[in-house]
Amino acid sequence: xxxxxxxxxxxxxxxxxxxxxxxxxxxxxxxxxxxxxxxxxxxxxxxxxxxxxxxxxxxxxxxxxxxxxxxxxxxxxxxxxxxxxxxxxxxxxxxxxxxxxxxxxxxxxxxxxxxxxxxxxxxxxxxxxxxx
Length: 132
Known about the structure:
This protein has helices spanning 53-70, 91-102, and strands spanning 8-10, 25-27, 34-36, 40-41, 78-85, 108-113, 124-131. It is α+β, with helices and mostly antiparallel strands and 132 residues long. The radius of gyration is 15 Å and the shape is globular.
């Protein structure tokens, strides 16, 4: 029987605990396929971009779920998340959506506040990397 290895997430005791919902270290098993996805934004299934930031947050995570499903992946396969926002993130709301996806199995993450994204109406973009 083949030994199936999974992505491992760690927070070394030699570092302070994460200040958010992420892991300091994500280890990808040898021979895993790496999936690199374009940044997902908050447009709905009809391509309409809401002006409300939290609606963009919700739609972005919905889009991440759809793109994972399209490749027969789940949140357990996500190894890295990069978040870019042009507006202040309302962390209580964001974390509730994040927890729905990751269920406290948090990948490595980077967050950056930037001046602009690809179009003026886009205020959030989330890029994910996965392995399986």
